[in-house]
Specification:
Layout: H1 4-26, E1 35-41, H2 43-46, E2 81-84, H3 92-95, H4 102-112, E3 114-121, H5 130-142, H6 149-153, H7 157-181, E4 190-194, H8 217-242, E5 245-248, H9 277-282, H10 289-292, H11 300-316, E6 320-325, E7 331-334
Parallel strand pairs: 1-2, 1-3, 3-4, 4-5, 5-6
Antiparallel strand pairs: 6-7
Helix pairs in contact: 4-7, 7-8
Length: 342
């Protein structure tokens, strides 16, 4: 005969033992949140020019942020999760704290992930207004009645840089603030401030205007050797004062700028580009600037090279470096020297 009462007692003992074991630590620990690298900033950070933009950022509802899966943040290899919060056309006000801002979204993300690296590339759409400068250079090329575009910019360039600097500093401070609010210490993650690669060069072939680079060589030379290195130097100062690490990109696409090669497929910067797909997604809202906003931005190959250099720089632990072209056609973080372009 089976003694059901004895069997029941045995079952109760096993059940109670299991409950006690769980109560004293037998239950599995909660999984650690996934590590993430996050990009903040403007068009260069978003991946403008790299193509294949995320749905919802291709012009739908007027959103032309153009976040690309080929953007450098996704090519850095710095964390299992890479998140792109940057937006084409963003200035420092769009990055800074406030409802819907990039730093506000960073704060939300930092509570769900373990943010290990934040990249910030911003300032080009503030007082320095690089897009407007380039547009002025194109207009000067098309209209022979105008003088070189640099003549209209050079005198005021230092003041425009000086006005941009405190705005970038405020954006860096907001990144620090939202992460502190999310429970991070300032040394609990890496914050990298990046400058900008020159999309243009005076070293162009013949008929460069017809080939997608409608600007004077002298204007392009000033942009490559003065304007972008000056901006890099100003941003390097922001990084030094704020405790951020600094990656100088002013020479990152040197030798592969728009119209620097006979074959555009080996260049890392887009030439003047018209994107009809903007009309498909953005409809009439794409008329005007959205049709050509991919122009003079790093393409997917350029982003891949920058991403590898960024990853190597962060892992090196260096406070500052420059992404410099190497003999094998890649980029490597070297000693920073924003004034070295020549």
């Amino acid at each position: 005969m089976i003694d059901f009462r004895s069997g029941l007692r045995v079952c109760v003992v096993f059940i109670v033992s299991g409950v006690v074991a769980a109560a004293v630590g037998g239950a599995p620990a909660a999984a650690d949140p996934p590590a993430a690298v996050v990009a903040l900033g403007d068009s260069t950070a978003s991946g403008e020019g790299a193509g294949d933009y995320e749905a919802g950022t291709r012009g739908e509802g007027g959103n032309f942020c153009h976040r690309s899966p080929a953007a450098y943040v996704h090519r850095s290899g710095l964390a299992p999760v890479s998140v792109n919060l940057a937006c084409s056309g963003a200035d420092t006000a769009a990055v800074r704290s406030g409802p819907g801002s990039q730093t506000a979204r960073l704060g939300d993300l930092a509570r769900e992930h373990r943010v290990t690296t934040v990249t910030l590339q911003v300032g080009s759409n503030d007082d320095v207004a690089l897009t407007a400068v380039l547009a002025g250079c194109i207009q000067a090329f098309v209209d022979p009645r105008q003088g070189p575009c640099r003549d209209a910019v050079v005198a005021g360039w230092p003041a425009r840089l000086a006005a941009t600097v405190p705005k970038v500093e405020a954006a860096v401070a907001d990144v620090r603030s939202v992460l502190r609010d999310a429970g991070y210490s300032d040394d609990g993650y890496v914050l990298v401030l990046l400058s900008y690669a020159s999309p243009v060069t005076e070293r162009m072939g013949r008929l460069h205007g017809a080939r997608g680079c409608p600007y004077h060589r002298a204007d392009a030379g000033w942009a490559r050797t003065v304007a972008l290195p000056d901006l890099s130097a100003a941003l390097a100062g922001v990084a030094a004062r704020s405790g951020a690490r600094f990656l100088d990109l002013s020479r990152a696409t040197e030798g592969r700028e728009a119209c620097s090669r006979d074959d555009p497929s080996v260049e890392w910067q887009r030439r003047l580009t018209v994107e009809p797909g903007a009309l498909r997604h953005g409809h009439l809202g794409a008329l005007g600037m959205p049709l050509v906003q991919e122009s003079f931005h790093p393409n997917a190959a350029g982003h891949a090279a920058i991403g590898r250099c960024l990853g190597e720089f962060v892992r090196s632990g260096a406070a500052a470096a420059s992404c410099l072209p190497t003999a094998d056609g890649t980029l490597s973080p070297g000693r920073p020297d924003p004034a070295a372009a020549s």
